[in-house]
Amino acid sequence: MWDFWGQLWNRDAGSSFRTVDLAKFSSRGFGGADSRMKIAICDENKEDLIRLNGILMRFDGNYEVSVYQNGAELCSAVEQGGRIDLLFFSACKKQECCVKVINRLQKLLPDMNIVFMAADNDHAISAFSVYALHYLLKPISEEEVLEVFRRMERRKVTQHTLTIRVDRTVQVLFQDEIVKVESMGHNKLITLSDGRTFSTRRNFDELLDFLDQSFLVIRRGCAVNMNYIEKINRRECTLRDGSRYLISRKLCMAAEQQYVDFASVSKKK
């Protein structure tokens, strides 16, 4: 490993770099004697790696950044006891290689946040399968890196995300913002709490496999987030925005009981 690739940068209050206020994106919640957040960059492209590291160096954050030339070096460092809280991972040419490396790391670091980086959207499936925090297209900007820190703060509240391909872009959505998922012909319409909608061609059952236990299937091809249900009976459910949805006769009894169970657990929390 070259000296550059193995170098570890420590941020401190005396940095002469232009700073960005990251106080609200602090390392609270990262355990151990050293509570500084550990960030790793893995990218075979030296120019891209230097660019991203330079952006991180301009922020005044309580974190350390380590860089790696390839997945093998990264995995070796983690297997020797290294901790990573946030990983910026540049997609490999072969998607199966990307997933193999990430799965290997997730077994050792299940709480690690992963940001996929790529020159195109061809690796959306890989990001989908590993519950990526974000998917960034190169070249990466300072604002996009700030958005990553914001998403980390959000993930402290909600751990689940959903990655979908929308037209020519990749979207990583927080599941607690999803109100419903509904089949519309060959497309699946995902509605968020702020009114935005996203259309994807992913299989409905495949989407359900990646959604958490907050989602209730009320009829074929339609699932609603139970956190947004105002009231429900065996015929229909009403959401907070006043919209009403009929419940399939075959699912009515099970749906009502599932919601009762969900609500009782939520109250205990």
Jot down its keywords:
269 residues, OB fold (Dihydrolipoamide Acetyltransferase, E2P), 5-stranded antiparallel sheet, alpha/beta, 2 domains, single chain, Rossmann fold, elongated, disordered N terminus, 6-stranded mixed sheet
Describe this structure as you would to a colleague.
By secondary structure, the chain is of the alpha/beta class. It is built from eight helices and 16 strands. Helix 3 runs parallel beside helix 4. The N terminus is likely disordered.
CATH architecture of the largest domain: 3-Layer(aba) Sandwich
Structural class: alpha/beta
Order of helices and strands: HEEHEHEHEHEHEEEEEHEEEEEH
Termini separation comes to 48 Å
CATH class category label of the largest domain? Alpha Beta
Q: Quick one: biggest sheet?
A: 6 strands, mixed
In CATH terms, what is the fold-level topology of the largest domain? Answer: Rossmann fold
Report strand order across the widest sheet.
1-3-2-4-5-6
Structural Rg = 21 Å
The CATH homologous superfamily of the largest domain corresponds to Response regulator
Task: Note the total helix count.
Answer: 8
Helix content: 25-40%
- Number of individual domains: 2
